[in-house]
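hey so u asked for the seq, here:
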Amino acid sequence: MDPILLNFEEIAFRMGLKFFYWSDKSQALFINGRHYIFLNENQSPQQQWQDFCHELSHVLLHTGNQFHMYPLFREYQEFKADNFMYNCCFEIKFEQKYLANPYFMINKKNPF
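ran it, structure tokens below
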């Protein structure tokens, strides 16, 4: 995978999402027919990646306003978003560590 594509700003742009940094908690919003992802600017790059993937899941998989949902359904959506984030971040880490460096895979008996 092209390393430039492992940039959440580029991913948001290519998906037509509006993306912003701000000082509040990371979140995804749908306003006037557009999706927005807001990431907390004070977090580490690793935490921002995790939050981006979590919020991207809400954009791709969920509808509605969580403030008007039953608490158990909101919790279900959060579990699904976390699961998406874990899978997405694992794939990104795998590609960065192993696929970008075939020498590592050849010279290790068991890289996993």
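The chain has one domain: 3-107. Helices lie at 8-14, 45-61, 71-99, 102-107.
lmk if thats what u needed
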